[in-house]
C-alpha cells in the first residue's frame, strides 16, 4: 500500500483520472451498492442461517424461507436495515484494502486503467484479514433476530470478541478468500470487460445506453458468480452466526454440515438462497458499476474543466 504515498498516484493520467480518483470512484460505487442491496443481503443470510431449527435439526429450503419471512414480516424495517452501519463503515475497512490492493497492483505493474485477473487474485487473498471482522459483525447483528426481534448491538459483539482476544472476528476467513476471489474476478474484472463487449456488439445500434449494457453485463455475470460463491457464502454463514461465547465452527465442520444438508435435501440444500443471490448480485453489480462510472465521469469533467487532464500527443 506504499503507493498511496507516491505523488504520481495523485496525478491525472491519460484516461482523465488520477489513480486516487479512480479508487474514490470505486469506494463511492461500493457505498451506493451497500445501501441499495442491504435488504436483499439481510434476507438471504436469514434464508441460509435458518437451515437449522432451534433444536439443531435441518429444515427444508421451503421451511427456512418461511422462517425468514416471519422475521421480515414481524420487523420489516429493522430486518432490512440490520447490519447496514457495519457494512457502510466496512466500505472503508473492507474496500480500502481490497480496492487499494486491486488498483495498486494494476498501478505498480503498469496494467493501466482496468485491473486484471492477477490484481484480483492478489486483492482477494491479501485483503481477507481486513474484510472478515466486518462481515462477522454484520452477520452477528442479525444472527439472533429470530429470538430477540432486534439486531444485536455492535458494542456487545465487540465486548464478547474482546473476551476471547478478538479471535472470533476472524471466523470464516478461509471461505471468504474464495468468495472474495470470485467476487473480484467476476464482478470487478469480468463485468466491466463484458460490458465493453456488450457495448460494442449490442450498444453500437444506440438502442441500449451505458446503463442498459451495464445491466445486461451484470445479468450475465451474476448467475455464474452466485453458482460459484453460494456454497462459500453458506460456509461463512454457518461459521459466523453461532454465538461468539460458544466454540468456533471450523471450516471442516461447516463443510460436513453442508454435506449433511445435501444428503437430506440434494443440491437445493447446498444452494439455499440461490435465486435470491442472483437477484442480489444483479442489483449489487449494477448499482456498484453505475455509481463507479458516474463518479469517474464527474472526476474526468472536473479535471478537464480545470486543465488537469494531460494533452493528447
| Shape verdict | globular
Number of self-contained structural domains = 1
Helix percentage range: over 70%
The major pleated sheet works out as: none
Question: What is the radius of gyration computed over CA atoms, rounded to a whole number of angstroms?
Answer: 21 Å
CATH class: Mainly Alpha
Could you spell the SSE succession in H and E letters? HHHHHHHHHHHHH
Kindly report the average pLDDT value: 83
Classify the fold: give the CATH topology. Answer: Mitochondrial carrier fold
Q: What is the beta-strand fraction?
A: under 5%
Put simply, the count of helices is 13
Distance between the termini: 31 Å
Number of strands: 0
Fold and architecture overview:
By secondary structure, the chain is mostly helical. The protein has a single domain (15-305), classed as Mitochondrial carrier fold (Alpha/alpha barrel). 73% of the residues lie in helices and 0% in strands. The chain has 13 helices and no strands.
Amino acid at each position: 500500500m506504499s503507493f498511496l504515498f507516491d505523488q504520481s498516484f495523485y496525478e491525472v493520467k491519460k484516461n482523465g483520472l488520477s489513480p486516487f480518483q479512480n479508487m474514490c470512484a470505486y469506494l463511492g460505487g461500493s457505498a451506493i451498492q451497500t445501501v441499495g442491496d442491504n435488504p436483499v443481503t439481510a434476507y438471504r443470510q436469514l434464508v441460509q442461517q435458518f437451515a437449522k431449527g432451534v433444536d439443531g435439526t435441518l429444515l427444508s429450503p421451503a421451511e427456512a424461507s418461511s422462517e425468514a419471512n416471519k422475521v421480515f414480516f414481524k420487523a420489516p424495517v429493522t430486518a432490512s436495515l440490520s447490519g447496514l452501519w457495519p457494512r457502510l463503515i466496512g466500505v472503508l475497512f473492507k474496500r480500502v484494502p481490497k480496492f487499494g490492493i486491486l488498483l495498486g497492483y494494476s498501478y505498480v505493474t503498469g496494467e493501466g486503467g482496468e485491473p486484471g485477473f492477477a490484481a484480483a487474485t492478489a486483492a482477494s487473498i491479501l485483503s481477507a484479514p481486513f474484510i472478515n471482522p466486518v462481515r462477522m459483525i454484520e452477520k452477528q447483528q442479525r444472527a439472533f433476530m429470530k429470538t430477540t426481534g432486534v439486531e444485536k448491538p455492535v458494542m456487545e459483539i465487540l465486548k464478547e470478541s474482546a473476551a476471547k482476544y478478538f479471535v472470533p472476528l476472524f471466523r470464516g476467513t478461509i471461505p471468504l478468500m474464495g468468495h472474495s476471489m470470485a467476487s473480484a474476478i467476476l464482478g470487478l474484472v469480468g463485468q466491466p470487460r463484458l460490458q465493453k463487449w456488450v457495448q460494442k456488439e449490442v450498444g453500437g445500434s444506440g438502442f441500449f445506453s451505458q446503463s442498459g449494457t451495464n445491466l445486461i453485463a451484470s445479468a450475465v455475470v451474476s448467475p455464474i458468480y452466485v453458482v460459484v460463491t453460494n456454497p462459500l457464502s453458506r460456509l461463512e454463514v454457518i461459521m459466523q452466526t453461532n454465538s461468539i461465547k460458544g466454540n468456533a465452527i471450523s471450516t471442516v465442520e461447516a463443510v460436513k454440515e453442508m454435506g449433511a444438508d445435501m444428503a437430506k435435501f440434494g443440491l437445493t440444500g447446498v444452494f439455499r438462497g440461490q435465486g435470491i443471490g442472483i437477484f442480489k448480485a444483479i442489483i449489487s453489480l449494477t448499482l456498484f458499476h453505475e455509481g463507479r462510472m458516474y463518479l469517474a465521469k464527474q472526476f474526468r469533467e472536473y479535471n478537464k474543466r480545470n486543465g488537469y487532464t494531460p494533452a493528447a500527443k
